[in-house]
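Hi P.,

Sorry for the delay on this. The queue was packed all week, but I finally got your sequence through. Input first:
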Amino acid sequence: MMDEAAKELVHERTIALNGDQGTLYDVARVYAVAQADGRFGGLIEFVPTGGGEPVLSPRETTQRSVEDVAYWATGLEIVYFEGALSRALRDPATTDDKPVAAVRASRGRRVARFEIESNDPALPLRLMGTRTLVPGQRRSIQRSGALVYEGTLRSPSPTEPGRYAFVAEFASDTAAALVANVIWNELHAEVTWIAVQGTPIVLDHAALKSTLLGVAA
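Then the structure:
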């Protein structure tokens, strides 16, 4: 089975497409999947309305990076998704290409939820290191830690900053320090407020690390 770090959900689109058996699919998710040569394949997963087993297309593109797959995905038209759904139903992805199902937290890792406020709507993208962002998307940090984007709690407006929710995962004190370092480096100049597990804190690297360790489940 492919390592979780080898794939990334980079784009999600609301659709309304019928399969050849009359099944309606209302969500398309694009994954970037690491290849043996260091490049990334782009696969499209189609989710049926009301539940059921998703279908996954064979590799639709090969790009140099995860960011390139995300950029490719943003330009897809509905006619392309129609063709990809047909390919997914006729010739589904091989085992080697399939992304691993996302998990809330990897086994053996501690987790801490945090929220930030910022006037910069692009800040969550920078923190997650991606061009497009959907709830549940992960950013792996040195294999022993990760950030998970939970979603936008409030969009920024002329009178209020945006508020965004994340989960930090880490397997050790050292991993907590690495995760705290990424958060601090990406956020310290732009964030107007941060809270970990509902408690506001000062955005300082040492304080962030100790708070993560203190509240992680």
